[in-house]
Amino acid sequence: MPDADRPLQGAHILRGIALRCLSVICFAVMSTAMKWASQDGVTAIEMLFFRSVFGLPVVLGWLMLGPGLGVIRTRRPGAHLLRSAIGISGILLAFGALIRLPLADAVTIGFSAPIFATILSALLLRERVGPHRWTAVALGFAGVALVVRPGGEVLDHLGLLMAIGGAVGSAGVTVAIRQLGATEHPGTIVMGFFLCSTIVSGIGMLFVAQPHDAATWAVLVLAAVSGAAAQLLMTQSLHAAPVSVVTPFDYLQIIWVTVLGWLIWAAVPGLNTVLGAALIIASGLYTVWREHRLHRERIATTPLLE
Question: Which of 41, 96, 89 is nearest to 219 (CA)?
């Protein structure tokens, strides 16, 4: 690379990191707002509906300003429906975990998604997984076990199952996108999901919608807008810098939700959560470093983002 191009490349990388950090803050705000809204009885279906309704215009605007609406045509509607079903199930479980668990615990377990993605890739895509990645998987599972607190403070069992199920769903989406990405434009994949989630959650709203006070509606709007902004910022970060450079900054979300949980509810994570988060983060960072060394760039999913 010519020396004159190096400052420009460095500026792009710094821009990508800045955008990723902003997206992480937006994700943390979304998770915190959803948790806050749940205290007024807001259900997971309502959360998904607001996220979808406010996210859909963002996706439409991105398509119209970029590749155009023509890219949403597809010859693989069945594959998009399957991807959407997995994504919707994963998000509903993740939102259910936010309702039932402390904020930091729910988000921390959600970051185990790359662990399950490695396992699903080996089982479904027949990808070769070497001893280094299996070591990272074992390290991540040890972290999840610590957060679950075997023999320690008891967390809501259904909430724990939902959090793990949400992580598995996020991993399933990663595998599905890898398969769809071979033939489908990213705009097609994103638009298909938002359309499906809007329709499904809209039908669900007919059965679970309930009145809320103005403060709760404002929190739901904040969650939806911050989630849409996070999606856009994360996408732009991948245009500016390599995946292996920006992905490690996703783990700052654990710190942000911990700070927000402390400011709003005076909630302080226990030692198990802190140690478990450290192991999960170490597992993820080691996987990213290993993939980078092998020159394999993969799209890493952030929990609650589909």
Answer: 41
Label residues 50-85 b or e (16+ Cβ within 10 Å = b): bbbbbbbebbeebbeeeeeeebbebeeeebbeebbb
Q: Do the Cβ atoms of 204 and 49 come closer than 8 Å?
A: yes
* 134 closest CA partner among 118, 113, 120: 118
Q: Give per-residue pLDDT as tens, 56-95.
A: 888 888 888 878 888 888 888 899 999 999 999 999 999 9
Candidates 30, 29, 50, 47; CA nearest to 38 is 47
Distance CA 171, CA 185 (A): 20
What global pTM score does this model have? 0.86
Residue 68 Rama label (left phi>0; alpha psi -120 to 50; beta): left
Pairwise CA distance, residues 7 & 5, whole Å: 6
Asked if 87 and 197 count as a contact pair (C-beta separation under 8 A), the reply is: yes
Which pLDDT tens digit goes with each residue over 16-60? 889 889 989 999 999 999 999 999 999 999 999 998 988 888 888
